[in-house]
Specification:
By secondary structure, the chain is of the alpha+beta class. The protein is 27% helix and 22% strand. The chain has ten helices and twelve strands. The strands form two sheets. An eight-stranded antiparallel sheet has the order 1-10-7-12-5-4-2-3. A four-stranded antiparallel sheet has the order 6-11-8-9, with no helix packed on it. α3 packs antiparallel against α4. The chain is globular and about 70 Å long. The two termini are 42 Å apart.
Length: 331
């Protein structure tokens, strides 16, 4: 996987957003106090993190030892292989400390905790200056748990602050080789791959080996970070008895006038509108979408500027309001 070779101070957010491939950024947050604590010991890190705990509950998953730390479905796909709890961060850290002293412990993962709510003091000494303050960080803490292959619809910078994490990334073109589970029944916020990367010979997923042949992989140490573009599939394996990560998500479009909501809503609407149509009619709609949405050619270059309407670039707040109202009418 490509690694950034320049000075950290020279990193540019616009250049990152323009990338079409992931980028490892060694040492991006190496000056954070929590990273210094983690480099001393797991105990020092846990104490430093607990000292910031505001006492609110965070989402926590507990996996039985036989799950092998892999978050996912039960074997029959009639449920998920974990139990969900809401507990204070410090309680989760205490449980992780207890698990570190036993063989074959249960998996435990504190997931996507909003840092401004659970450890609000974090922001005082742990800044990422290249990002706007409005981009809220989230905290992930656990033991040797693997987050299954999934994608995010927004830009993502993930910073390892304790332990080591192995990131395996797949370009969007590998979608058909990843055997994605149900869109509306997933153990995480996004749909996941049903194939486990270490089980390449599983006869249910013969194309997985093609995805793995094209995969990009990197192991991050405390202080390292990775930038992942939207829609890149990623699998994250935590490799130590105590691991922690802070990540930041943000959309490509900024400002209230460009807030279009989650792009996944458009995918769901397309499934509703087009999936059951006859093949020929589906193909015609596909061409229409390519022309007005996905092609690089301006579809209204031949129209006078004062009559381009909702296809103005960028659209006005009034035009966006019209589009939203029209979408609601047609749902």
């Amino acid at each position: 996987m490509e690694e950034y070779a320049g000075e950290i101070a020279e990193l540019d957010l616009a250049a990152l957003q323009a990338r079409e491939h992931p980028l490892v950024i060694r040492g991006l947050v190496s000056d954070w106090p929590l990273v210094h604590a983690a480099r001393r010991s797991d105990s020092d890190f846990a104490k430093a993190l607990a000292a910031m705990d505001a006492g609110g509950d965070v989402d926590t998953l507990r996996l039985a030892p036989e799950a092998g730390g892999h978050v996912g479905y039960t074997s029959s796909l009639d449920g998920f292989n974990y139990r969900h709890f809401r507990v204070p961060l410090t309680q989760g850290l205490q449980r992780l400390a207890a698990y570190s002293r036993v063989d074959d412990p249960p998996g435990l993962a504190i997931q996507s905790a909003v840092i401004d709510e659970c450890i609000p003091a974090f922001r005082r000494d742990h800044a990422l200056d290249m990002l706007e303050p409005a981009i809220a960080p989230r905290l992930w803490v656990g033991n040797q748990v693997t987050t299954p292959t999934h994608f995010d619809s927004q830009h993502n910078i993930a910073c390892v602050v304790c332990g080591r994490r192995r990131f395996t990334l797949f370009a969007p073109e590998q979608l058909a080789n990843l055997y994605i589970g149900p869109l509306d029944y997933a153990p995480t916020g996004a749909a996941i791959s049903m194939a486990r990367l270490e089980q390449v010979d599983d006869p249910r997923f013969p194309r997985l080996r093609h995805a793995l042949a094209a995969a990009q992989q990197a192991t991050l140490e405390p202080g390292d970070a990775i930038y992942m573009p939207p829609l890149w599939w990623h699998n994250v394996a935590s490799l130590e008895p105590l691991n922690a990560l802070v990540n930041y998500w943000w959309p490509s479009l900024k400002g209230a006038e460009h807030h279009h909501g989650d792009s996944l809503a458009a995918l769901f609407h397309c499934i509703l509108a087009f999936r059951q149509l006859p093949a020929g009619e589906r193909a015609h709609w596909q061409r229409l979408l390519e022309h007005y949405v996905f092609d690089d050619v301006d579809p209204v270059a031949h129209v006078p500027e004062n009559r381009r309407g909702v296809l103005d670039d960028p659209p006005t707040p009034e035009q966006l309001a019209w589009l939203r109202a029209a979408a609601r009418r047609h749902l």
